[in-house]
Amino acid sequence: MARLVVHSELIDDFEELAALCPFGAIVMGPKGATVDERCRMCLVCTKRSEGRITLEEDAKGPAEGWDGIAVFAETEGGRLHPVGLELLGKAAEMAARSRQKVLAVAVGHGLEDAAEELRHYGTARVVLYDDPAFADYRVDSYTSALFDFVRIYRPGTVLVGATPLGRSLAPRLAARLRTGLTADCTVLDMLEDGSLIQTRPAFGGNIMATIRTPAHRPQMATVRYKVMDMPARRAKATGEIIRASVTDRMRGSGIEVLEVRPKEKVVDLTEADAIVVAGRGLKSQADMALIGRLADALNAQVAATRPLIEAGWQDPRRQIGLSGRTVKPRLIITCGVSGSVQFAAGMRGSGKIVAINSDANASIFDIAHLGIVGDLYEVVPRLTDMIEDGRAI
Amino acid sequence: MKICVCIKQVPGSSKVDIDERTGVLKRSGAEAKLNPYDLYTVETALRIKEMLKGTTVTVTALSMGPPQAKEALEEAYMMGADVMVLMSDRRFAGSDCLATSYALSQGIEYLGGFDLVITGKQTTDGDTAQVGPELAEMLGMPSVANVAKVLSAGKDSLTVEYDMPESVNVAKIALPCLISVDKGRYSPRLPSYRRKRGMADAPFLTLTADMLHDKDASHYGLDGSPTQVERIFPPEASNDRTLFKGSAEEAADFIYKGLSAEKLV
Fold first, then answer.
1. Residues of chain B with pLDDT under 50
2. Quick check: B231 and A43 CB within 8 A?
3. Residue range A273-291: average pLDDT?
4. Residues A39, A98: one domain?
5. Assembly ipTM
6. Whole-number Å distance between alpha carbons of A148 and B219
7. Which label site among A159, A238, A370, B14 has the fewest CB atoms less than 10 Å from its CB?
8. B 31-90 residues with CB below 8 A of A?
9. What span, in angstroms and rounded, lies between the C-alpha atoms of A82 and A105?
10. What range defines the domain where residue A343 resides?
11. Is residue B252 part of a domain?
12. Predicted pLDDT at A25
């Protein structure tokens, strides 16, 4: 049982100890100092209190008999989503370090071409759940197929693309397996013993966390599209294609898809070459025109941060960040964006990051290649003019 | 129809810094608010209730958190929820997504089960969007995410419109089921002042771990969480960067030259 234990006998200055907790959870109770329900288990107190507060837990051994890194290769209408290939690239790199095999698993109908392609990305096996019942995505039925896959192949790690489909499928699978799942990892690494080291923004603030799944297998993680690099396609195909047998239990679902209406093609931020982002430094919706003019001059797309989307100033499809899109353009110019980790996680892979912000301490300047401390209302129009004129002053 | 809306109280500000010298987390202000996505969760439940006028529909707002999280439930009550239930216990602290959804599933069992469970798209503090689907799995219910609109509600099924990357789909889901709603077509109603004044008489229940069917403490909180935070650290800064301060003219010129040099304009 893991819990925080306060060693009252070691406490000389209660106020000093209480001040360690960012959530104010260290309190004086009737029987001395204790930790109350405000505790978020951030464990800062165990690291800073010099033994006055410790974490007591039972030893749990890592699970045996789980081997291999599996990637869920998402398909729609038999076409592969590129995030699966990006994850296979990452999996191959981690597999080499930990001496494991890479497996790809796909669920859908008419998967021949996708399977053939997956053989070119360093896979040892490509496992297909190919059946008319899987033509439409239904989360309960897809979960049953993947559960069957994990039960048979026992991979130590399962990676899923954090697409709208993956973001609903991975948690159901993790819950059925009663294992851990880390959402939207920005960095993945693996130790030689196969332990997955996952990094993502945490606590809803400007903080990153390294997360592990020490005692449960498989270790599961989702990763956004365009966070990992696309690997080179290998000329030589390796993966052995295995058609899994599909049972009625897997086909069963409480969901009946009645209608699929294709959306009209809208600008896809993830494919944009250049993006101009508006942040909270913008004073009114009318001022979006300033951003629009700069974007037009650059032949770029307009995007916005969460507060602006919540205020209804932009189409939600134009949101960058953990609750919006992840982008990797050649050029991104942020205007009045402070640069929360949630936002940065959605764009830090961009080729050239230019930031304009009046606050010299804004965290956006930690990741910007060109940072401008200045008023966007003065800088943006001048920059737009220069680009339109094609000249420097 | 019994409807349960799962909501969460989140920090009012995302400003959290780490003191570089001591490594201690600094959170500015203690203010908290209802997860903005949950306004749509509550609104969706109330729309369904209106859709089923003439039949008995109860909307229970369920949350897990410290005692102050009752404020989030009160907001749901002021919007029109009928009952407030707060799962609050020291033993729930440190829960990851799996432990959270397990505890919620136990709370739902205690409350006698529901025909429909509604969650928001995600919370603004965890940003994982995992608890909804995990809870559905624990409850053995079919689930649909990214629901934009409920088209019809019947005795045995719900018909919903939901967003997929390349299409808008319509599906019929068998009850009992769980839906995760997106900021779709509904704009959330404002809290009612009259309901606020009646708060003292509003049905409110606190659930602790001892009241749940599964009393094994190792299934909750940090113990029940397969994922463990090993280390927290400030995001690393990029090392090839220039910070420019000067007049607006100079700044614009500086950017323009920087972009021209790399053929970006």
1. none
2. no
3. 95
4. no
5. 0.89
6. 25
7. A238
8. 36, 66-67, 88-90
9. 14
10. 269-389
11. no
12. 84
